[in-house]
Write a structure and sequence with these properties.
The strands form two sheets. Strands 5-4-6-7-8 form a five-stranded antiparallel β-sheet, covered by helices on one side. A three-stranded antiparallel β-sheet has the order 1-2-3. A hairpin with a 3-residue loop joins strand 1 (about 15) and strand 2 (about 20-25). The mean pLDDT is about 80. By secondary structure, it is an alpha+beta fold. The radius of gyration is 41 Å and the shape is rod-shaped. The chain has two helices and eight strands. It has two domains: about 15-45, no CATH class; about 80-175, no CATH class. The longest helix is centred in the middle third of the chain and has 55 residues, at about 50-105.
Length: about 180
């Protein structure tokens, strides 16, 4: 049911007023698709964000981004430390396995301490520390009997650091059994 307003000129838009809103209907939409354009008469503010709101939002976002970017170096350092620890454990395991293989041929546990030096990749072994030395493995005989040889290994790195002492030291222990006796 449609209300008619006799005082309205049908060539222009139809204007209906309510308690707080002013509704404007284009004449083409009254007779075709319903399109309504509302204007709130009680609020004269335009829609959008003020400059203060935008500045506050940018400040909050920038503080969050700075915090996230500040964590990147710590994450990279933790990744490097984990890689160094893994490589140190691999070097010691390989060294222990070499002694196990030798002891299968001839039971000859050494007494005292032996030092081995490796580069940063853990692939090249050196007899003495040098400029390429990164890891130092110090093997010590803890106990030696006819049937069991107990070793400890202390891995320190970086050996060629500018600091007085190496920054990291890990300790490992193993026992090698003599199955020939």
């Amino acid at each position: 049911m449609m209300k008619t307003y006799p005082e309205t000129d049908l060539s222009g838009p139809v204007i209906l007023s309510g308690a707080k809103n002013l509704w404007c209907f284009p004449m083409s939409s009254v007779f075709s698709a319903p399109k309504v354009y509302g204007v709130n008469l009680l609020s004269s503010r335009k829609k959008g964000f003020s400059l203060v709101e935008i500045v506050i939002a940018l400040a909050v976002v920038s503080i969050g981004l700075i915090a996230v970017v500040g964590l990147i170096p710590q994450g990279l350092q933790a990744s490097r430390d984990a890689a160094d620890n893994t490589l140190a454990a691999t070097i010691v395991q390989d060294t222990f396995n070499e002694f196990r293989a030798q002891e299968l041929v001839a039971w000859n546990p050494f007494a005292g301490t032996q030092n081995f030096y490796y580069d940063a990749a853990g692939t090249n072994e050196f007899s003495s520390p040098g400029t390429l030395t990164y890891y130092q493995v110090q093997l010590t005989t803890v106990q030696s009997t006819l049937s069991l040889w107990t070793l400890s290994a202390a891995v320190t790195w970086p050996v060629n650091s500018l600091t007085a002492k190496p920054l990291n030291t890990n300790f490992y222990f193993t026992a090698i059994a003599n199955y020939q006796h």
